[in-house]
Each structure stands twice: as structure tokens, then as C-alpha cells.
Amino acid sequence: MSSQRSQHHLDFMASPPADQSPHPHAGYPPKVATGIAGLDDILLGGLPKGRTSLVRGGPGAGKTILALEFIYRGALEGEPGIFVTFEERADILRQNAWALGWDLEPLEQQGLLTIIQPDMPVRFVESGSFDIGGLLAILDGHVEKLAAKRIAVDAADVLLRLFRSYAQREEQLFALHYWLWEQSQTALLTLKSGHEEQASNDRLEYLADCVMHLDNRVAGQIATRRLRVIKYRGSGFLSNEFPCVITTGGIALMPITRSQLGRRIKGKVPTGIAKLDSLLEGGYLRSSCVLVGGSTGAGKTTIASQFALAACKRSERVLYVDFEESVDSLTSSMKSVGLDLQSAVDAGQLKVIATMPESAGVEEHLWYLFQAIDQFAPDHLVVDSISACNRMGSEEAAFDFLVRLLTHCRSTGTTCIYLNQTTPESASNSISGVGISSLVDALIVLEQDWPADEHRRRLLIIKSRGCRHSHAYHQFQITDHGIEIAETESRGSAQQEAGP
């Protein structure tokens, strides 16, 4: 391509950057990290260095945010970048970025980022004399001034729409692609899905070295964004669809298939109930998952709260996720049975997150819980109750949520207590409710009946992997100082080897 290009075809409005000396990227890695949470894991390191990548998707999928974050994260690392916008005004982009916690103006003043907003005069478009020579000339100047190595072109389909014929679109598309290659730019272009110029848009997918698809679908009245890498020349990548969340800090992806099974921390953790410890040969296995099932009023929240309070008294941290009631309601109800959770909250040992399952989809819930786990670093996690997770959209969504949360807890060595509400008639037959009973390490069922107008509760340990446990029913009471378990109700051996 000739370096002398006619500039009368386009007028441009660009935020004037401050002067800066070149700051080349150290070394010569084959990939450039995007800095976007989870995306580099999916791409096995980042976007192809010095090549063109494409993000395609429908409205609201997150294309613009992903492209802008690519430029923003690079600028924060000292790698200058250019963002070209054909649909949104530069000032609106800055406002939208501010809502995500990104302050672009200081980076622009430092010469680390610039936003170019082309102004395309109608007279040249209507006359058919329009080409992208002016755009490329302006980009030449900014690339040289910033020593930029990253560039994002948002809504490239808007640019292609300016050309009347298929041949013109092909010619200008190749000119843009060639210029990006010639400049050794790590480029990211965004493109709408299902546009009328489908052939030209498809052509861009063939030219690009890395192609990603974003979509925003609705299932069970819950909106979900997902990303899938279609191709990546010269590199492997994770080819499944991955949940994509727009958080208060930008885009985040959670590669499910990259989750590790986790590490096992040896030893036992006391349950907070002396008799239950003896029935479990010392307590729960540390970093295991325990599922406690029972009908309303059986004592699930009490047994979990007693465990949490005992852990806090040992200076361990507990994260309590409550899908059923508010923080005040939980602390008040447990205070009535002698469990002072509020003091543990005030001491910073216990953190309670109370939220409604239907307030967000699985991905949003998981992202914020992962953040809470990473920041609070709990030794133990309680989820009360998992039956409420069905309200996140479907039973499949609930299963997905619980398995991925469990996998994350195992990777961090966190002991996990799941509570599940069952019906009185099926407490022992449907303890998990969402099909995860085979994945947990210990199963405890709480049952209750009312013989002769008397309310009786009893407990049965169905399994406890890796340790001996009681196989008998044990009656218990909820007193004014928590749960008290009586001796075994049935005759026979109370200690037997647990199954696998």
C-alpha cells in the first residue's frame, strides 16, 4: 500500500494525545495477553501478536466492552493503544468506561490511549468516491506518535456498509487488513452478526487469524452471555462455549473446563457438636463437601450455624451464603437457640451474603461468589439452601452452579457445607434434589415426625468418604444452646467402614 493516501475523503475527530516516547512491548512473545479475566486462559495465553482478531456478536453481547477493555488493559501495562469507534461518540465511550471503573482520560493525556471517532461526510459517500485511505493515513500518524501496538476497530460493519458494491467492500476490507499486517498491529475488530452484508462480513472471518463469537441468549427468563472461539491459526484454544459476565470492573469469563479438581488437605474439622464428631470419627474431612438434607424445621440451618460458630471461635473464617433469608433474620433466629452469629460477623470471622437466586443468572452469582472467596479467603463455605438454586433458571442451571462452586472450593481447599430442603415424605430419598449427591463426600439426612402429638427429630449419616461413621439413626433436640444428639436409637454396630 502506498504511504501517500488522499485525506480529503474523510474528516476525523480524535482526542489529541499528549507526546510520549515509544514504549515497545518487551520481548517478542507469539501472543499478547488481553488482561481480560478468563479470556487469556481460553486463548491459552492471549491474542496472536501482530495479527488481526475478530469478535462477532449481536446487540448487547459485549463486543464494544471487550474491545475497549483490550485497549484499556494494555494501556495500564504501558502498551499504547488506539480505539476506533464508528457507532458511539468518544465522550459517550468515556462515560460508559467510567461506569465500569475505567478512567480513560489520564491514559489519553499520558499518550497511552487514544479514541478516534471518524466523521464521514455524506457527499463523498453518495458520490461513490469514498475510500478508507484517509482513515489509514490518520491511523498512520497516531501509530507513529503513540508507538502503538494495539488497535481496536469497533463496528467494522458500519465502515463496510459505506461501499455500494461487493467488490468495493472486498477491496477496502483487504486494504484495512493489509495495513494492520504491515504495521504489525495486534488488532481486534468487532462485527455485528446477521447483517445484510453477510458475504463481506463472512470474508472478514476468513482473513482474521483468531475469531470469537459472543451471544446474549435468554433461557428460563434469565439472560446469559457466552463466548466461543471459532478458530485460532497456529495455536490451540479451548473450543467450548464459556459464560461471560459484564461486572463492575469489565468483562469476566469463567472457563469451566479449566477448573482444577483441587487439592485435598488432610485432617478433620470439628462439626461444633461433640456427639456428631464422635459419630464421624472426629468430624468432617477438611476441604470436603458435606450435604445436609431435611424438610423445613428439621434443623439444617442450626447444624450449619453451629459448625460456623465453632470454626469462628477457632479463628477460622466462614463464608455463609443465604438464599433463603436476610442477614438480620439469620442472626436473630440463631440467637434464639443460643448461637451468637452476630459477634462472629462483628469480629470479621463470619461473612454472610444474603441474596435472591432469581436476582441474577448462574454466571453472575458464580462470579461474585468467586470474588468473595478470593478476597475473604474463607476456610469454610455454607450454602443455605441449594434447593433455592433452581430459581436461577432451571434444575440444570442449579446443578451447573453447585458443581462449579464445589470445584472452585476444592481448588482453594475450602470445606463446603450444602444445605438442601426436602419434603417430609422424601427426606432420605431425594437428599440433594439436584443430582449432586454422588459428588459430595458426606451425606447427612435430618428427619422429623410427630408421634402422639410430640415433635421428634432424628439424624442419619448416609455416607462419609474416607472415614468410619455411624450407620444408625440418632435422635436429637434443638435446645437453647444449639443441637444436642442423643444415643443411638437402633441396636447393632454403630461404627462401620464407610463405602467409597
Automatic annotation (TrEMBL):
GO terms for molecular function: ATP binding; hydrolase activity; protein serine/threonine kinase activity. This is non-specific serine/threonine protein kinase. Residues 1-30 are annotated as: Disordered. It comes from the Bacteria. InterPro entries: Circadian_clock_KaiC-rel (IPR051347), KaiC (IPR030665), KaiC-like_dom (IPR014774), KaiC_dom (IPR010624), P-loop_NTPase (IPR027417). Its EC number is 2.7.11.1. It is an enzyme of class 2 (transferase). Residues 30-267, 268-499 form the KaiC domain. Keywords: Hydrolase, Kinase, Phosphoprotein, Repeat, Transferase. Coiled coil: none annotated.
